[in-house]
């Protein structure tokens, strides 16, 4: 049944999701941000991709919004539509690549897509123009993770056409770190430098005032210099601190799994 996540009593193995722990984690993360940045603290996005890391997207999203998340982030259009259908009303950023043949959901669900390729920008521009609307988007920059995003070293070529799209409004620019949970990692340092250069390239093209964001859980704990305007912790929100930072922040596991001992031999 949709929405039913109740304990099945005739089974002895149960995964329990404690939303109060999720709210607690959001609180301690916000306190951590405020301790270093005070009134100028970054906002936080509730990352609820992959069914909120298996915790249930809708209840997790509701709890995170009640705990101060100013944005939700998910992997694809269907996940975003599920959140809208449940009545969640904050901006929803879609991280993933979407099927260019099926963009209706972005407009119907008022979702914020990530532009990761010039082709995606063209298709979104056409779709927005056909509907006579302006569509906000975030630009994903690949600073070295080699997953999604416009290559940081090719922006001079790819940016002009994207920024000139008359029906697209740049609301944010972000990158994703591959190794922020490994202290002293060289790729993390390079990705930070590359993102700074990407920002400079955007500024040189007159882009001002859009949200800049980069920090996943590892970066949030490793380097306040990556916090910018918004942080995007996933694992940490669900109570899992990267090994290197275990104990640095008082998050609690949100999920617990219990079973009955069937036999002792
Ligand atoms: C999954 C994801 C996050 C959160 O990462 P964690 O390591 O779970 O904190 C942040 N940003 C993007 C783009 C992601 O895909």
List the helices and strands and how they pair.
Blueprint (H helix, E strand, L loop, with lengths): L13 E4 L1 H19 L5 E5 L1 H6 L2 H10 L4 E4 L2 H9 L6 E3 L9 H5 L3 E4 L2 H14 L3 E8 L7 E2 L3 H9 L4 E7 L11 H19 L6 E5 L1 H6 L7 E2 L23 E4 L7
Parallel strand pairs: 2-3, 2-10, 3-4, 4-5, 5-6, 6-7, 6-8, 8-9, 9-10
Antiparallel strand pairs: 1-11
The structure holds pyridoxal-5'-phosphate (PLP).
Task: Give a short summary of the structure.
It contains 9 helices and 11 strands. By secondary structure, the protein is α/β, with parallel strands linked by helices.
Could you characterize the architecture of this molecule?
This protein is of the alpha/beta class and 265 residues long. It is built from nine helices and eleven strands. The chain has helices at 19-37, 49-54, 57-66, 77-85, 104-108, 118-131, 155-163, 186-204, 217-222, and strands spanning 14-17, 43-47, 71-74, 92-94, 112-115, 135-142, 150-151, 168-174, 211-215, 230-231, 255-258. The strands form two sheets. Strands 2-3-4-5-6-8-9-10 form an eight-stranded parallel beta barrel, surrounded by four helices. Strands 1-11 form a two-stranded antiparallel sheet. β3, α4 (77-85) and β4 form a beta-alpha-beta unit. α1 packs across α3. The structure holds pyridoxal-5'-phosphate. The site of pyridoxal-5'-phosphate has 11 residues, from loops.
């Amino acid at each position: 049944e949709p929405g039913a996540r109740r304990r099945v009593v005739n089974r002895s193995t149960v995964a329990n999701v404690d939303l109060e722990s999720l709210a607690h984690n959001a609180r301690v993360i916000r306190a951590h941000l405020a301790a270093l940045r005070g009134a100028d603290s970054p906002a936080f996005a509730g990352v609820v991709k992959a069914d909120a890391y298996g915790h249930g997207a809708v209840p997790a999203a509701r709890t995170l919004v009640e705990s101060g998340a100013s944005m939700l982030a998910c992997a694809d259009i269907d996940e975003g539509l599920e959140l809208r259908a449940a009545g969640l009303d904050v901006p929803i950023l879609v991280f993933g690549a979407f099927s260019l043949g099926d963009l209706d959901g972005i407009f119907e669900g008022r979702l914020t897509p990530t532009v990761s390729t010039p082709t995606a920008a063209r298709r979104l521009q056409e779709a927005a123009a056909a509907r006579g609307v302006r569509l906000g988007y975030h630009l994903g920059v690949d600073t070295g993770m080699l997953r999604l995003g416009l290559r940081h070293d090719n922006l001079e070529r790819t940016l002009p056409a994207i920024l000139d799209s008359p029906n697209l409004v740049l609301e944010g620019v972000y990158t994703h770190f591959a190794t922020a949970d490994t202290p002293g990692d060289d790729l993390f340092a390079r990705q930070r430098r590359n993102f700074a250069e990407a920002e400079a390239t955007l500024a040189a093209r007159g882009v001002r005032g859009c949200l800049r964001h980069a920090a996943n859980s590892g970066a949030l704990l490793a380097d306040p210099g990556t916090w910018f305007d918004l942080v995007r912790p996933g694992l940490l929100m669900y109570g899992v601190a990267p090994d290197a930072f275990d104990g640095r922040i008082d998050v609690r596991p949100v999920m617990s799994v219990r079973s009955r001992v069937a036999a002792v031999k």
